[in-house]
């Protein structure tokens, strides 16, 4: 009895301890859950505040940008047509307003009339501003023309930057910075957009417009890449053909290159086989260009490199070997059954992989296009053959029908009979005989 009482009491104590322990743990879990919810709510509020802060920065800098462009166009570009300022303009600057300012007027009109208003329409719903960029992405490509003209613009500016005309304009505008700083504004602005989009994307995880922001960022980066590529393309010298006929520029970059070629049955390497050539490669849809990079003396855009054309390979005759010489940064490009082999070493393994994948993509697309062409031709030949058979069969059948018809008509015609001779003629003939 005492033993049973002891066990019963022990179980009650144990049950009470267990319930108390579970209750405490549940309270802790509930407290932790509430704490997490509180932290999540606080984080959402912070993200919302930061998001609106970035959106306000986007709007404020956009308005300031539009004002700065207008200031340059009215304070400098328009003054070049002012008769009272004509005596201050040097001869090197005459009739060269389009070179100096590029398409800045077109950029200003787009931002003033369209883009700024579009951005302001998303003030109350900043999380959806990515749609604005996506809708105007084609218009933003006008920056490519401005950037392509920038080297010519800066070269002209350096020739006459200290002339009285620019000094007088700067004085009237009360600008602390010279015109060259304002001519750089469009380049800085198109670059600034991708930074602002990255900030907006950082604070919009899980929001409705997150996917649009990501797509807008990718598109802006695509425009920046196109601008950068175009700046390199216009610096190529010595290419006799038309670069636009080579298709879209896909990639460009600097590599170390070794070459091999077959002479008869023997493989011959360049004399300087241990010392690679430094080449800048331009991968187009239809051709791969090898150029020699030349650094120019000067400052700013005048220091931009130029490229001397050396060699080209048609992508329709190119093959690729992904791994070469046991080096994860090397790959081979060859043509004419490996009669010409170019061993290419990239700066990093990642760059090599990117180039190999892009070249393979081009070759795959060409193969698919070739198969499509062959299939189309075979379909055309088959159709022509069937049409020829049909026409031949029809002609044969028609001829048989004509022959049968003619034969039927011939059988139905009665045989020709000789008319009886007149009796008088017969009698006269007999008598005479």
UniProtKB/TrEMBL annotation:
- Keyword Lipid metabolism attributed: no
Q: Where is the DH domain?
A: 50-230
The terms describing its cellular component in GO are:
cytoplasm
Matching entries from CDD domains are given as:
PH_Dbs, RhoGEF
* Keyword list, A-Z: Guanine-nucleotide releasing factor, Phosphoprotein
Task: Give start and end of each PH domain.
Answer: 248-364
**The protein's name:** Mcf.2 cell line derived transforming sequence-like a
The protein's organism comes out as Sphaeramia orbicularis (orbiculate cardinalfish)
